[in-house]
Amino acid sequence: MAILKLYGYTKASCTRRVATVLHELKIPFELVHVDVMSGEHKTLAFLEKQPFGQIPYIDDDGFILYESRAICRYLAAKYPGSGLVPSDVKAAALFEQAASVELSNFDPSASKAGLELLKRDMAWEYDQAVIDVSLEILDKKLEGYEAILAKQRYVAGETFTLADLFHLPYAVLANAGEGNDVMTRKPNVARWYKELLARPSWLAYEGEEAVRTTTSY
């Protein structure tokens, strides 16, 4: 069977989201660098695989799939023993609730703030007003997270799931910069966030840009 290929930009958050789940599941994969700076993701060859010209997508022995959260769900379904998506009907419903919260309540402000903070870090043109407004919105949203995480260890309950991992890439970007503590100023959010940062699957990606291929599992 051919090794799974992940096509993405190594510094991109959605690419890292998928790579982290691959590491979590210990699935060997090849990270194929897409040169977004030169517009490779907008070429006809790329658009044949991903019609919106976005990253990442995977090629799993000829099966093409895009959208990072859909890819992660597919991988978890393919390896159900991981428990990253619960099988119990009530636990699954709580997982879907948490995943929906991430997409609708966390991602909009975290991604806006995170992308502008990344631009600032890269010495590119950025919009400080977007950072300020987005971090303010995110901080308010995290009050809900604080209430949830005061009662349970993870966002979907006492068990770690994909819903937790979905948050990580933009949480890290949104928390970047001197004096920025949006992810750590609330005690239960900070406890949860720091635990996720310490997971081997997240840390494994640090050298991925240089290695590109992970086949040691």
From TrEMBL:
Pfam families given in the database record: GST_C, GST_N_3
Domain GST N-terminal, residue spans: 2-83
GST C-terminal domain span: 88-217
Species: Mycena albidolilacea
Protein origin, superkingdom: Eukaryota
Keyword Transferase attached: yes
Keywords (A to Z) from UniProt: Transferase
Single annotated GO MF: glutathione binding
Record-linked InterPro entries: Glutathione-S-Trfase_C-like, Glutathione-S-Trfase_C_sf, Glutathione_S-Trfase, Glutathione_S-Trfase_N, GST_C, Thioredoxin-like_sf
UniProt lineage: Eukaryota, Fungi, Dikarya, Basidiomycota, Agaricomycotina
Keyword Transferase on entry: yes
This protein's name: glutathione transferase
Reaction it catalyzes: RX + glutathione = an S-substituted glutathione + a halide anion + H(+)
PANTHER family assigned to the protein according to its UniProt record, in alphabetical order: GLUTATHIONE S-TRANSFERASE RHO
Enzyme Commission code(s) on record: 2.5.1.18
Gene Ontology biological-process annotations: glutathione metabolic process
Catalytic class of the enzyme: transferase
GO CC list: cytoplasm
SUPFAM superfamilies recorded: GST C-terminal domain-like (SSF47616), Thioredoxin-like (SSF52833)
